């Protein structure tokens, strides 16, 4: 997998295609409904804004609900033995 590739749901082209497909289906159901390019673009922007907000809320919820700590170190962590008080 390409490490520079972004997930499909972050692609404006994919969301644009989904909105265009949805508009086609809506027009087939209701022929009086006409969506021009500007309206479709606005709809894509609105969907992206909602998706970004939902992603932010999910990230906050995930961190609050998580049972493990977050570490900035990568890889396995070494356990350090507890320190003993000096018997001096």
Return the string of H and E elements.
HH
Low-confidence blocks of residues: none
Biggest sheet, in brief?
none
- Gyration radius over CA: 24 Å
Q: Which oligomeric state applies?
A: single chain
Rounded to the nearest angstrom, the distance between the terminal CA atoms is 59 Å
**SS strand fraction:** under 5%
Number of strands: 0
- Number of helical segments with 4 or more residues: 2
Secondary-structure content class: mainly alpha
Kindly state the mean pLDDT as a whole number? 75
Describe the structure.
With 88 residues, the protein is mainly alpha-helical. It contains 2 helices and no strands. The protein is elongated.
Descriptive tags:
2 helices, 88 residues, single chain
Ordered list of secondary-structure elements with their pairings:
Layout: H1 12-29, H2 37-65
Helix pairs in contact: 1-2
């Amino acid at each position: 997998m390409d490490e520079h590739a972004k997930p499909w749901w972050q692609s404006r082209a994919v969301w644009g295609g989904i909105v265009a497909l949805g508009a086609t289906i809506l027009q087939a159901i209701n022929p009086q409904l006409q969506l021009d390019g500007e309206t479709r673009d606005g709809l894509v922007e609105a969907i992206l804004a909602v998706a970004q907000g939902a992603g932010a809320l999910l990230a906050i919820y995930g961190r609050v609900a998580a049972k493990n700590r977050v570490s900035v170190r990568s890889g396995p962590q070494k356990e350090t033995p507890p320190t003993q008080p000096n018997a001096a």
